[in-house]
Design a protein that fits this description.
heterotrimer, A: mainly alpha, MetI-like fold, 14 helices, flat, C: mainly alpha, 13 helices, globular
Chain lengths: 291, 369, 296
């Protein structure tokens, strides 16, 4: 009987240990969640404090009782935030659309068409994946400058419309579509292009969506290239705009207005994320890298 | 070396996650059973019948909602698996892919702590013994990916045995093997069990597998134990229609029938006397080997075809009251069937005929004399 | 058949054109630039070929500062972020309720504009005439001395830079490691439990070997990413990174190319190629090490 008591105690101790472990885990996870969320909270909070209230708080307060939207009005009137926004939208949409066309055509050629030199071409493409952007940006800058394309959308967009990695990703995806489908379509007299549009694209829709979302995020956050290629405010994207605001806008100390601008440019992607968070996370874990 | 295992009113309820259905899932319902020392027991049933949950409860990977589990004299119900002294062989073997066979077998021994701790030599000796027992002692340096399914299965068994468990549990041990290996491996499991005398419980959905090697079988359905007994006893005396249908290949032939004035009818055919049963609607089950070819027999069937299989002949025929499209009977090959004939007639062996209540599907005992 | 050949290349044409113009040609060109001595951007002429550009860059104090900053950043943030991400992922893997919520929250920084959020970090850490800032408030609370993290001492600026970098790279790492952990067959853990395996041993002997390919993938991409750090620094310290003493190698390249200190594509090219060689070397070393330690 003594034996039995012993077993009961082991069992109880094991359960208590696992309960304590869970509590510690939740505490630590919550701590990190707070570290992630706090900057977002702070930016929203600061953006609704009035200029005078913000600057009179030597010890910053964690809440405000008199929220104001004045900063948002300032953000759109004192600097051309609306313009930056529109520019980014145009840049993002056009770049993503052109890139999709280029990438889809190339991936289709590699996945389904038979032609001489295909393997060599593909190997060369793959080897380009290793080339960091920093290495080619210098010449591209010179090229675009010499072409007189600085401060134009063309100059902004052209170097950003191909991605070897996305071609690779899509080609892999295309290849998983059974070859019988292609042969069946050929027997029915479907042209290659029609087959691509009517069969392959719909089947590969999840990958296309992933690529699109990743590219949109990339475009929305683009900073280095737009900064090199634009010095006219009329062509600034949001990243450059925010940098401009930081250095020259609002007078250096109007932090609430600055935060309002930050909120405004962060919102579109966060909304996109909240809607598609499952798709985005699945897509990124399948093959996204940042930068 | 073995150990008695007692299950008392074991019940496991899984809270329902699907909001559309509002009832919880009762995976195991009031399971009581005493497994005697050193026996090989097969838990048998269709998928979703709760047999794997039962195994996990015995192992400790799941905790029962109510009821008790006793090993020997110890109540282990609330004990985590690592303190129970059980060996578990997983359906997909769960061999660590980055470790060699020897490292895999050594793994449980290296976990021993305190007074149970072994010297390096002792660990190696025991690992080698276990490997020899399952006849993989020449493959110790391989990685699991370099072995066949059957060999992996043996490694998994060796890993479970090496720590000398009180109870050995196997989850669908043969399901990942091809047909030929399955036959061989089940003999192997039987041999190992008899050599080690460890109380062994295994789960399977394949009745042939369970019947062929078990000392005892437990037939389950929807979380409820249907029947427990020696394989032959359960086969010869099923408790209800489900058990009768589940055991035996080819399966039992079921007819709609009735008992009237002490006679048993399959459809309109008066096949046997049935004493001690009041008049009622029944199902009549006749094992394939329960048919006798008889020109004047009472059971008149339409002949479909005859399959000669050497020792036996299998007659495939139809009957209007049969529940399945065709009925299959096995008769000795010495009997010649006139294959040109459109019909065939049988009489039946009373011991191979069971009747079941039409409503409850419980077996009704009757006497044919 | 001939028709088919043409068609294949036709489909590839746009990609080839774009890649040719903006990737292959620049690649050759950057090599040429880096060896052209005394290149003049306005007249587009040079004196001749030589190693002078490399020598200049390697003796430039700003470049050496940038190399130092970059190496410190890499050495601190890559192991730290990978380690913390591993801990967080293990934690996430151990819980069931709220797991999706935590995962979603942790991923949030990935989709935000790093320039914009960097501004928030700057405000949190900055000390001005009006306020000591949020972080200094915390330091006061624990009885410490307040520091200006943005315009103050070097170590303080380095701390903010590393902190922000870790904050930014964490979502990707947590995501990758969480899915790697989730893809380990649970039977391995059940088998280990039945065998009374201690927690630490489960981690070192089962979990870690199983996810080792992904851990090495993260370390390799982490090194590459951290060596290319630039925009996070701009967000924190402004565009004039040399003045702040917080420039990175990539920052140096862009400064040489453009802006107040720009107009020297040759120096920029030399610096970019040096960076490329460093990254390539470290990636190769990483791959060699991972070959030894990744088990399958």
């Amino acid at each position: 009987m003594a034996n039995q008591v012993d077993y009961e105690r082991i069992g109880r101790a094991a359960r208590a240990r696992s309960l304590a472990g869970k509590a510690v885990i939740y505490a630590l996870l919550t701590l990190w969640a707070l570290m992630v969320l706090f900057p977002f909270y702070w930016m929203v909070l600061s953006s609704v404090k009035s200029y005078s209230a913000y600057n009179s708080e030597y010890v910053p307060r964690f809440f405000t009782l008199s929220p104001t939207l004045q900063n948002y009005a300032d953000a759109f009137t004192a600097v051309s935030l609306g313009r930056y926004f529109l520019n980014t939208l145009i840049f993002t949409l056009v770049t993503t659309a052109v890139m999709l066309a280029v990438v889809v055509l190339a991936a289709f050629a590699f996945a389904r068409l038979e032609f001489k030199g295909k393997n060599i071409a593909f190997t060369l493409f793959l080897s380009l994946m290793m080339i960091p952007n920093e290495l080619v940006v210098i010449t591209n800058f010179v090229t675009i400058t010499n072409l007189g394309l600085r401060n134009t959308f063309t100059g902004l967009i052209l170097p950003s419309v191909t991605s070897v990695f996305y071609i690779y990703l899509l080609k892999e995806n295309f290849e998983q579509i059974p070859g019988e489908l292609y042969r069946a379509a050929k027997v029915d007299g479907t042209s290659d292009f029609k087959y691509l549009l009517r069969v392959m694209l719909p089947i590969s829709q999840p990958t296309i969506v992933t690529i699109t979302i990743l590219k949109i995020i990339e475009c929305w956050n683009a900073y280095v290239w737009p900064r090199l290629i634009t010095d006219n405010e009329a062509y600034f994207l949001v990243s450059n705009g925010i940098q401009e605001i930081r250095e020259n806008g609002f007078g250096r100390e109007n932090i609430p207005a600055m935060m309002a601008a930050v909120v405004v440019i962060s919102v579109p992607l966060i909304v996109l994320f909240l809607i598609f968070h499952k798709k985005i996370m699945a897509g990124v874990s399948r093959g996204g890298t940042k930068g | 070396m073995g150990m008695r295992v007692v299950l008392e009113h074991l019940t496991k309820v899984f809270p329902n996650r699907n909001r559309k259905i509002h009832s919880d899932v009762i995976a195991v319902n009031d399971f009581s059973f005493e497994i005697p020392d050193g026996q090989l027991v097969g838990l048998l049933g269709p998928s979703g019948c709760g047999k794997s949950t039962t195994l996990n409860l015995i192992c400790g990977l799941e905790t029962p909602t109510s009821g008790k589990i006793i090993f020997g004299d110890d109540d282990v119900t609330r004990l985590p698996p690592e303190n129970r002294g059980v060996g578990f062989v997983f359906q997909n073997y769960a061999l660590y892919p980055h470790l060699t066979v020897l490292e895999n077998i050594l793994f449980p021994l290296q976990n021993l702590k305190g007074s149970a701790k072994l010297s390096k030599e002792e660990m190696l000796r025991r690992a080698r013994d276990a490997a020899r027992l399952v006849q993989i002692d020449t493959l110790l340096d391989r990685k699991p990916s370099e072995m066949s399914g059957g060999q992996q299965q043996r490694v998994a068994i060796a890993r479970a045995l090496v720590k000398m468990p009180r109870v050995l549990l196997l989850d669908e041990p043969l399901s990942n093997l091809d047909a030929r290996l399955r036959l061989q491996t089940r003999e192997e499991i039987r041999r190992i069990q008899q050599e080690t005398k460890i109380t062994t419980i295994f789960v399977t959905h394949d009745q042939e597998e369970a019947m062929s090697i078990s000392d005892m079988i437990v037939v389950m359905k929807d979380g409820v134990v249907q029947q427990i007994g020696r394989p032959q006893d359960v086969y010869d005396s099923p408790i209800n229609l489900f058990v009768a249908k589940f055991l035996g290949t080819p399966p039992i032939n079921v007819f709609e029938g009735r008992v009237k004035n002490g006679r048993l009818f399959a459809g309109e055919n008066d096949i046997l006397p049935a004493k001690g049963v009041s008049d009622r609607e029944v199902y009549v089950g006749i094992r394939p080997e329960g048919f006798i070819l008889d020109e004047n027999g009472p059971l008149a069937c339409g002949l479909t075809r005859v399959e000669v299989m050497g020792r036996d002949t299998s007659v495939v025929s139809t009957h209007p009251a049969a529940q399945s499209v065709s009925i299959r009977s096995i008769i000795s090959a010495e009997n010649r069937v006139d294959t040109d004939s459109k019909t065939v007639r049988f009489s039946v062996k009373p011991a191979k005929v069971f009747i079941f209540d039409r409503e409850t599907e419980e077996r009704i005992r009757f006497s044919a004399d | 058949m001939k028709n088919n050949n043409l068609k294949g290349w036709l489909y590839l044409l746009p990609a080839i054109l774009f890649l040719g113009c903006f990737m292959v040609y620049p690649l050759i060109d950057v090599l040429v630039y880096s060896f052209e001595e005394g290149y003049n951007f306005a007249s587009q002429t040079s004196f001749g070929l030589g190693l002078y550009n490399y020598a200049y860059v390697l003796h430039d104090g700003y470049f050496l500062q940038a190399v130092k900053n970059t190496f410190i950043l890499v050495i601190i943030t890559v192991p730290l972020s990978t380690g913390v991400a591993l801990l967080i992922s293990l934690g996430l893997n151990a819980i069931k309720p709220l797991r999706n919520l935590y995962q979603t929250i942790y991923f949030l920084p990935y989709v935000t504009n790093t320039l914009a959020v960097g501004l928030v970090f700057m405000i949190l850490f900055k000390k001005t005439a009006y306020t000591d800032g949020m972080v200094n408030l915390l330091i006061h609370f624990f009885g410490g001395e307040s520091v200006d993290f943005i315009d103050g001492p070097y170590w303080a600026k380095m701390f903010v830079m590393c902190f922000y970098t870790v904050w930014v790279v964490m979502p990707f790492k947590v995501l990758i490691l969480t899915s790697a952990l989730a893809s380990v067959n649970p039977d391995y853990y059940r088998a280990a439990r039945v065998d009374a395996t201690p927690k630490r041993r489960i981690f070192t002997r089962i979990t870690l070997p199983m996810i080792s390919p992904m851990v090495f993938y993260l370390i390799i991409t982490g090194f590459i990413g951290a060596f290319k750090a630039y925009s996070d620094e701009v967000a924190l310290f402004g565009t004039d990174l040399n003045a702040a003493g917080m420039n990175t190698i990539v920052g140096y390249v862009y400064d040489m190319l453009y802006g107040d200190s720009g107009g020297y594509p040759s120096y920029a090219s030399a610096a970019a190629l040096i960076l490329f060689v460093i990254v390539l070397t470290i990636t190769c070393v990483n791959l060699l090490v991972s070959k030894k330690h990744v088990h399958y």
